[in-house]
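tool_call: predict_structure(chain=1)
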Amino acid sequence: MHKYLIRAISIIPEIGLFLLITIAIGTLSSWYAIELGTPFNVARQGPWIRWTSAGLVDSDPYSRAHFSNRELLPLDANIILSFEAAHDDHGKLLHSSCDYLLEGRNINAPWWMIAVFDAKGKLIPNIAQRYSFNSENVAYNPNGSFAIRLAREARPYNWLPTMRAGYIKIIFEAHRETRPLNTQQYKKLILPSITRISCR
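tool_result:
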């Protein structure tokens, strides 16, 4: 009996370590699913990601937590596709110390919008009061394409100020007012490229 008691006491640290590792793995997995998403709740297209169930009645708990943590209310996914990018086309984090060029054309949506936010999902205050461009007010090139510059200092034509916001993210929304955007329309959507021009 004494021998078994000693043995039971000796494995307590092992059980504690196992529980600690299990809790740590569970916490890390939950954080990853909420902050970065998983193949089950996020679709990726280049640097852009889309929370596939955001704005739906049967949205998964991780997607709900993702937007709740940022105090954001996702728009109705039945008529709006919303994408976000925190990296450029080469996988580097977007930062206000760098200038970026967003280029796009032939976007398969009757109306779209591009906006820049800080890492917490807040609009970036600026004297010019520029926060977004959309399919109606962006200046197009003669060939129908468009280019938007993200930079601290003013740039000609389509410029979105990033000031000294630190890490930033870009939101792209494609709207369909007449009927829901389906999966096939999403796959045909050509999203803008994000190119880093220079950094300070």
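agent: The mean pLDDT is 79. Proceeding to next step.
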